[in-house]
């Protein structure tokens, strides 16, 4: 592990150590007369654990997601999501200082006491699923109080609570009267512990709050301290216990002040089965056998850190060291862990640490890194300081790992190690600013991994994976800003979204190009150095950037400092669209900004930004590297008029090269026509990722209309050359060390599924051959094109479809059965699907089919757009049986999906009539009407653009009439809606044709200069010209 001197850093460590700890030394962990394991101590005292809670049903079983943009068989161009998933968004206020007895406000803890040090003993019993614990918390008192409020779970039972006061004269802690728990009412915040004290705590003094014994069950929801299992080759079940505390789950394991700014030092001890090992954030300093069956492992004390970053793992997992020193290790179960599977993790990790040290100018703070592949892990990965945990498939590479996941493993390692600086060393002050953690980590994952694997072209992909994805979410109605207030635990969970991750990373990348890379690095170093082992905030970050900007003199907006400019991006939601209108005769252009909106906002209040405008790129200069701002659009001056452009009327111009600025660009029709010619020979995977996203938009709106076949023909045309270049399958699987063909693999994965969707005969033959070679075994097919192979082989071969049905019926493992169900859903032999659904509803087969079988199969069927009409007809035929078999919750979820996926008014009328006749209940009728109204609003694009787009497709592919077809979404009593005059004859479809005709003549390559500007242009055109919603 790289180590190098840094005098400032050493001083900061010393200062943090001096300020974080109280003068006294910790008390003994147990009374001096007792060295019993906690479990034995609990047994002696007759300690009773809370009753075990029933396991909750897996949510996905009762949810129907409906048609998917990228269902089974269609390669998703986006990487897996790090964000934790959408919820019903909640909002709340900011922190305010409160009286010490205001304990039932869920917002924040009172500020009268702060922790400085913990001693935490945990004793899990993996066989019984229980654990016992003991915690000492050392406190500094800021305000006199007779009440302590901290976090704890109602699922934890406590024996007692004690309070001690430090005596400077005796250099020890003495009892300080009685302490007792205050019972909480049913409507109070259940995650609080309230301790009332007989004697008031004195401001400025040191105290110790002791919880000598507590216990609970190891959780089953993958939060807090939870139990995980795996099965070995001999089908023996192995147990392990691990933690997931972010954002608010440390309280589920032990009593603590569970807020990110309340940092302290932690001394961790684990009592565990002697046959297992225990690991935590810091290195092990001792392991002693304290009984015939139990060992106690003690770890070095941590540096000051937040509770959510604590971690420990008790397991029989094995490890492979990345180097001889053994300071960097990757852990996993023996059946998965090998030098090959750990190659990426152990190669990327140490290199990433070194590069992060160089970028930040600050060495890694801890003496080791352990990376654990956990069998049951919900978060994807978690940056616990010194002990990083991962979902197994996101850390260990196997023969089944696709190129998409291979890249994701590497970038995830870089992401989590980036957190060791931004998140761990300097931690967000409160969850309102989650982007300070996740935005920086998103930035690091791409910048650092791009240096390790430049052949992957990750900074090209950054635009589609992050900037485009962020913008698509940021323009949604009701979206919140990067910095937005949160109070409840639910609202905190909401902050782990595309705005914090992807917009945060995109805006930080923009700041880099505003300041320049050298100044940006200096600003990061200043921010981290000045706040090491403490909390960060947007104001502190902007102060550091402002200071470095003043020294280096980058171009900032007139009359504004860096912080003023930056807040226009972090404190308001939304995206600006910059419109460039050329005057060819005068050789000038007008550039103006406005907020991109889905229609007109309710409050009529549009927002403006400080928008950096680099030098305009022209066809003759072709210099895409000048990304520093040459001029600004500001809230006070949102337009630049008559800007001189050194380009002839026949040359294209481009604004926002590499889309370093977080905004959309729209051009006049003439410039669009010039730009679209520039991508005719583009063959980068990044350009295809953007094009496929645009195609998905069209497919989702045309898939069940009469234009569907024309769209397939169009896709077949534009993918033909690219598919010929890469084929369906590589000649052989490359070695894990060989990355030279990775970008070609990525392009093949994207193009093959599109070519097969379009009906490319070579692709379909390749799919059938791959399935035959794999002997219809899903796990043996090529990883990159496996889904496409099974989907399109089933769709085009009755024999293959019949064989996959046999595999489905004989599958014993639920995941395997779900894979074959997904493949069967690709069939167009609806008779077989109907028979399979009937057999499940009729309870036929062995073992007897379950409600889960029905839910999984219906979800698979509905994920394919082409199956919508079949499933709607089947629903009307057997709705009673579906509700009876799978439950009313699933029934209504299925109805919701069918309504949401409707693409014509006729279908909506059909559903309305069926429900009114079959389910006349007024409450149900009201729900159905609400769903129907929401879907009708979503059909606006079809009403406005279907005729024009379908006409273009029919003409371009020679598959149908050239005259405009009738739009399928008009109500029977209505005439065609009034359309505004079209802006231009160059619609998105023509732009998409040019942009996505990425004719790969050989292996995939880096995006060309023009591609770097047209990648964002694809999204701009998609939003501004097809939707035409702000016309």
From TrEMBL:
It comes from the Eukaryota. Residues 974-983 have a biased composition (Pro residues). Residues 1-20 form the signal peptide. Keywords: Aminopeptidase, Cell membrane, Glycoprotein, GPI-anchor, Hydrolase, Lipoprotein, Membrane, Metal-binding, Metalloprotease, Protease, Signal, Signal-anchor, Transmembrane, Transmembrane helix, Zinc. GO terms for molecular function: metalloaminopeptidase activity; peptide binding; zinc ion binding. The keyword Transmembrane applies. Residues 69-101, 959-987 are annotated as: Disordered. Residues 674-936 form the ERAP1-like C-terminal domain. The record marks 501 as: Transition state stabilizer. Residues 114-309 form the Aminopeptidase N-like N-terminal domain. The active site is at residue 416. One of its GO terms (cellular component) is cytoplasm. Its cofactor is Zn(2+). Binds 1 zinc ion per subunit. The keyword Cell membrane applies. The chain crosses the membrane at residues 1007-1027. Belongs to the peptidase M1 family. This is Aminopeptidase M1-D-like. The lineage of its organism: Eukaryota, Metazoa, Ecdysozoa, Arthropoda, Hexapoda.
């Amino acid at each position: 592990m790289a180590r190098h001197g840094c005098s400032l850093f050493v001083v900061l460590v010393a200062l943090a150590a001096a300020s974080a700890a109280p003068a006294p030394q910790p008390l003994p962990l147990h009374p001096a007369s007792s060295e019993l394991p906690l479990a034995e101590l609990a047994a002696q005292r007759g300690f009773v654990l809370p009753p075990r809670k029933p396991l909750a049903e897996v949510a996905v079983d009762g949810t129907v997601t409906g048609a998917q943009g990228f269902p089974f068989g269609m390669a998703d161009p986006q990487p897996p999501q790090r964000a934790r998933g959408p919820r019903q968004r909640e909002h709340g206020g900011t922190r305010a200082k409160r009286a010490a007895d205001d304990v039932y406000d869920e917002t924040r803890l009172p500020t009268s006491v702060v922790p400085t040090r913990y001693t935490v003993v945990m004793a899990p019993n993996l066989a019984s699923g229980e654990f016992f614990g003991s915690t000492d918390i050392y406190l500094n008192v800021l305000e006199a109080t007779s009440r302590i409020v901290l976090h704890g779970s109602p699922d934890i039972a406590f024996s007692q609570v004690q309070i001690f006061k430090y005596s400077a004269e005796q250099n020890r802690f003495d009892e300080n009267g009685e302490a007792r728990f205050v019972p909480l009412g049913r409507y109070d915040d259940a995650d609080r512990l309230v301790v009332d004290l007989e004697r008031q705590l004195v401001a400025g003094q040191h105290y110790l709050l002791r919880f000598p014994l507590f216990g609970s069950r190891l959780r089953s929801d993958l939060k807090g301290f939870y139990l995980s299992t795996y099965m070995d080759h001999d089908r023996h079940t192995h147990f392990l216990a691990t933690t997931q505390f972010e954002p608010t789950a440390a309280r589920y394991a032990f009593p603590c002040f569970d807020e990110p700014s309340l940092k302290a030092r932690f001394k961790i001890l684990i009592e565990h089965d002697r046959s297992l090992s225990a690991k935590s954030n810091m290195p092990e300093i001792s392991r002693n056998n304290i009984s015939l069956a139990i060992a106690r492992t003690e770890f070095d004390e941590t540096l000051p850190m937040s509770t959510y970053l604590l971690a420990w793992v008790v397991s029989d997992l094995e490890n492979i060291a990345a180097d001889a020193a053994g300071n960097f290790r990757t852990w996993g179960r023996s059946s998965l862990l090998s030098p090959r599977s750990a190659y990426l993790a152990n190669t990327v990790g140490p290199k990433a640490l070194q590069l992060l040290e160089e970028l930040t100018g600050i060495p890694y703070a801890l003496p080791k890194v352990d990376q654990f592949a956990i069998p049951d892990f919900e978060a994807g990965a978690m940056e616990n300081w010194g002990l990083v945990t991962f979902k197994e498939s996101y850390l260990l590479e196997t023969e089944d790992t696709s190129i998409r996941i291979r890249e994701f493993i590497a970038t995830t390692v870089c992401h989590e190690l980036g957190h060791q600086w931004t998140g761990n060393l300097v931690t967000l002050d409160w969850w309102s600013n989650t982007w300070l953690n996740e935005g920086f980590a998103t930035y690091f994952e791409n910048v650092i991994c791009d240096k390790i694997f430049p052949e992957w072209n990750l900074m090209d992909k950054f635009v589609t994976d992050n900037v485009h994805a962020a913008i698509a979410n940021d323009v949604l109605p009701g979206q919140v800003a990067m910095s937005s207030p949160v109070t409840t635990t639910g609202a905190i969970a909401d902050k782990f979204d595309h705005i914090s991750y992807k917009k945060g990373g995109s805006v930080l990348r923009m700041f880099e190009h505003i300041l320049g890379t050298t100044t940006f690095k200096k600003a990061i170093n200043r921010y981290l150095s000045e706040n090491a082992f403490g909390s960060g905030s947007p104001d502190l970050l902007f102060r550091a950037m402002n200071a470095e900007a003043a020294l280096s003199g980058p171009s900032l907006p007139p009359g504004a400092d860096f912080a003023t400019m930056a807040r226009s991006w972090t404190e308001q939601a939304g995206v600006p669209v910059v419109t460039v209108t050329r005057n060819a005769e005068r050789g000038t252009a007008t550039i103006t900004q406005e907020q991109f909106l889905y229609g007109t906002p309710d409050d009529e209040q549009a927002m403006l930004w400080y928008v950096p405008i680099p030098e305009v790129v022209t066809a003759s200069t072709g210099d895409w590297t000048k990304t520093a701002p040459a001029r600004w659009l500001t809230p006070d001056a949102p337009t630049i008029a008559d800007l001189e452009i050194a380009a002839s009327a026949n040359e294209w111009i481009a604004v926002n090269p590499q889309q370093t600025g977080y905004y959309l660009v729209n051009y006049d029709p003439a410039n669009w026509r010039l730009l679209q010619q520039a991508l005719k020979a583009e063959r980068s995977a990044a350009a295809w990722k953007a094009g496929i996203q645009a195609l998905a938009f069209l497919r989702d709106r045309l898939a069940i209309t009469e234009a569907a076949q024309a769209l397939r023909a169009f896709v077949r045309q534009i993918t033909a050359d690219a598919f010929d270049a890469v084929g369906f399958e590589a000649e052989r699987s490359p070695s894990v060390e060989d990355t030279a063909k990775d970008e070609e693999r990525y392009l093949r994965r994207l193009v093959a599924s599109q070519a097969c969707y379009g009906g490319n005969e070579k692709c379909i033959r390749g799919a059938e051959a791959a399935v035959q070679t794999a002997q219809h075994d899903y796990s043996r097919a090529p990883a990159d094109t496996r889904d496409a192979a099974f989907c399109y082989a089933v769709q085009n071969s009755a024999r293959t479809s019949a064989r996959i049905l046999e595999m489905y019926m004989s599958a014993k493992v639920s995941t395997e059965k779900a894979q074959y169900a997904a493949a069967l859903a690709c069939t167009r032999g609806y008779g077989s699907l109907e028979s399979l659904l009937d057999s499940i509803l009729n309870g036929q087969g062995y073992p007897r089919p379950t409600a889960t079988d029905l839910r999984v199969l219906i979800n698979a069927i509905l994920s394919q757009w082409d199956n919508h009409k079949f499933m709607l007809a089947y629903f009307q035929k057997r709705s009673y049986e579906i509700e009876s078999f799978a439950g009313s919750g699933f029934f209504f979820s299925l109805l919701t999906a069918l309504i949401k996926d409707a693409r014509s008014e006729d279908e909506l009328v059909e559903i309305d009539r069926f429900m009114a006749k079959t389910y006349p209940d007024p409450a149900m009728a009201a729900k159905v009407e609400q769903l129907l109204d929401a879907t009708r609003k979503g059909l606006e694009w079809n009403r406005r653009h279907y005729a024009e787009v379908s006409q273009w497709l029919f003409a371009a592919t020679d598959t149908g009439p050239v005259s405009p077809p009738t739009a399928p979404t008009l109500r029977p009593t209505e005439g065609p809606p009034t359309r505004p005059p079209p802006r231009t004859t160059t619609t998105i479809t023509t732009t998409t044709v040019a942009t996505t005709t990425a004719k790969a003549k050989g292996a995939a390559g880096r995006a060309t200069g023009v591609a770097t500007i047209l990648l964002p242009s694809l999204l701009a055109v998609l939003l501004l010209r097809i939707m035409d919603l702000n016309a």
